[in-house]
Amino acid sequence: MPWKERSVMEERMKFVSRLLEGEALSFLCREFGISRKTGYKIWNRYQASGLEALNDRSRRAYRQANKLPMQIEKTIVKLKEEKPSWGAPKILELLIRRYPDIKSPAKSTVHAVLDRNGLVKKRRGRRNRATGTALSFAHQPNDLWCADYKGQFMLGDQRYCYPLTITDQVSRFLLACEAQESTQEQFAFTVFESVFKEYGLPRAIRTDNGVPFASPNALFNLSKLSVWWLRLGIDIERIKPGHPEQNGRHERMHLTLKKETTRPSGQNFLQQQAKFDEFVDEFNTERPHEALAMKCPAEIFAPSKRPYQGLSELEYPFHDRTVTVTHCGRICIGKQKVNLSQVFAGQTVGIKEVDDGIWLVSFMDYDLGYFDWEGKRFEPVENPFGPKLLPMPSV
After folding, report:
1. For residues 68 and 114, is the Cβ–Cβ distance under 8 A?
2. Chain segment 131-149, per-residue pLDDT in tens
3. Over the stretch 171-214, which tens digit does the pLDDT of each residue have?
4. Which of 234, 220, 167, 203 is nearest to 341 (CA)?
5. Torsion, Cα of 194, 195, 196, 199 (10° steps)
6. By CB distance 3.0 to 4.6 Å, which of 7, 24, 121, 180 could disulfide with 162?
C-alpha cells in the first residue's frame, strides 16, 4: 500500500491508528510500503505532538506559538512574591521597568501565570470542574458508557467501514454498533442523538483521545461532540493515550465483534450493518457473560432515568456579560475581537472582569482562561487534557 500523494495525512493517521490498536510496527511498514525508519519517524512525531504533527504543514495552535519562556514565567512569579498585593497589570509594569529588553507579555498572560502558580486569590462560589482524565468506577447501569471506533476495515466494494460502538460499562449492554463512512463529527452526532433518545443520558462517557471525541488543536483538546456532551450534563472521561486496557471491557467486545462480523465483511454498508444488527441482538439477549453470573446484558441493563430533552439555555448571573461565540470561534463585543476556539462556536460563555482590564471566560462551570482587550489574546488556564508521552510500539 504505497503512500498516496493526495492523502498523505490520511495514510499517516491510518498508520498510527493501527499502531495504537496494537499491530506490530514492522508488519505495518511492510503493508504500507515504507521503511521502519519512516515508520518510527511517524510514530515519534505523533508521540510528541499528536495528530497535528502528521501534517507536513505545521498547524500548531496559536496558544503554543505564544507560549511564555520559562525564565520569564519564573521572573513573574518572583515579582509577585515580592509584591503579593499587586495584580497582573502592576506586575507587568514592574517587569517592563526592570527588564526593558525583553518582549513584554500581555496582561492576560501574566494573570494566567499567576493563576497556575497559585498566586491569584480565588473567588468564592466558583470552581473549575475540569478534572482531567481521572477515571470513575461505575456501580450501576448508565453510570458510565464507553464509546470507540473499532479499527477500520474494507468492505467488498473496496470502501472502508468505521464501526462506531457504544456500550454500558456495568451491564456490557451494546447500545449501538453503526457502520460509518468516516470518523467525522457529523456522523457521530446522529448516532449519539439516536441512542440518547432511545436510552436516555448517562452520567459519563469514556473514550480515547481521537477524533471526533477529542480535537488535538482545540482548547483543552475538546471537540464539538464533547462540548455537546457537556451541555447535556454528561461528564467526559478519556483514557491515557496508548492504554486501551483502561477501556478493557469495550475492547474485549471489539475482539468478538471483529471475529463474528468482519470475516468475511459485507459487500457494502447495508450488508455490513445487517451483520452488526444481528450481532447486537445476539450479544445483548442471547450471549451469557461470566462476569454477569451468566446473565445476558439485557437482563441487567435498564434505560436511564435522565431523558434526552435537548439543550437548555445557559445563564451566567455572576458574570458581567454573556456572549455567544461566533462561528469562527471568537468573542466579539462591538469592534473588539478575541479568538477563543471553534469548538465553542454558537455556544454562550460568560465573561467577568477579575482585575484591571483582565477578563475571565467561563463555559458552564468551567473557567477557561483570561484575556485583555489590549492584547486581544486568550490565555487558557492549565490544560487538564494535556498530551502524554506514549510507550514505543511493539516491533
Report:
1. no
2. 345 677 888 999 999 999 9
3. 999 999 998 888 888 889 999 999 999 999 999 999 988 889 98
4. 220
5. 130
6. 180
3-state secondary structure of 150: coil
Grid cell locating 99: 527588564
Cα Rg of the chain, angstroms: 24
Phi, psi of 236 (to 5 degrees): -105, 130
At a CB cut-off of 8 Å and minimum separation 6, what does 86 contact? 79, 80, 94
Domains of the chain by residue range: 5-59, 144-300, 321-380
Let me know: does 153 contact 161? Beta carbons within 8 Å: yes
The answer to whether 351 and 332 are in contact (CB under 8 A) is no
Q: Of the candidates 377, 339, 373, 360, which has an alpha carbon nearest to the alpha carbon of residue 114?
A: 360
Bridge partners of 322?
350
Q: How far apart are CA 205 and CA 147, in angstroms?
A: 7
CA distance 228 to 250: 23
**Model confidence band, residue 63 (pLDDT cutoffs 50, 70, 90):** very low
C-alpha cell at 65: 506559538
CA gap 279, 258 in Å, rounded = 10
Residue 295 DSSP symbol: B
Mean pLDDT of 286-299: 89
The rounded distance, in Å, linking the Cα atoms of 11 and 217 is: 19
